[in-house]
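Continuing from the previous page of notes. For each protein in this section, the sequence appears first, followed by its C-alpha cells. Read the first protein now.
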Amino acid sequence: MKSRTSAKSPVARVKAKELLKRLGRLRGRLPAGFKFDRLDANKRSSRSTNRSTV
C-alpha cells in the first residue's frame, strides 16, 4: 500500500502552517444560537449556478 504523505517543499509546508494559523483565528466566531442549514445553502447555491448565459 502506498503512503498517503506527499513530498511537499519546505515553502509549501510553511505556507500551509501560516494558512492554518490564520484560519484558527476565525474559530468560534459565530453568533450564539447560529445553526447552519445545509439544505437551504444548497438550494441557494443551485439557484445561482443554474442561470442561463446569453
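Done with the first. The second protein uses the same format. Note its length before scrolling.
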Amino acid sequence: MANFGSGNIIFHRADILYALEWAAAAPGLGRWTVLLDDTEQTRLVSVVPPGTERPAFLITRSQEGVFVMPQAPGEEGLQIRRFGNLREAVLAICPLDDERAVAVNEAMEILYPRTLRSD
C-alpha cells in the first residue's frame, strides 16, 4: 500500500461533485462539510462531521487508490483505509439510506450532467 499523501494525484471532478452533494444529504445533527485543498487541482479532501470544526478524515488519491485517514484513533487504532474512488470513501464514512442516495444521484444528474458524461 502506498504511503498516505505520497505520489497523490487529482480527484475526478465528478467524484468531487458527488462528495459535495453527499455532504448536503448525509445524516447527522447538522451538516457534514467537505473541504477541498486550495490548489487548482484537488489533491486532498477533508471531511468535517456535523457539530465539529476540525476535519475527522483526510482523503487523498494515488495510483493505488483513494486513501482515508481518520484524524483520531478508533477502537482498532489509527487505520488508513483504501477505496476505489472518492464516492466509495465518503459513503464508507457515512452511508446514505436509499432515499438520500436517490436524492444525491438525482441532484448529480440534474446539476452536473456534462460532468458525469465527461469523466
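What the second structure shows: The chain has a mean pLDDT of 85. Residues 13-118 form one domain. We return to this in next week's lecture.
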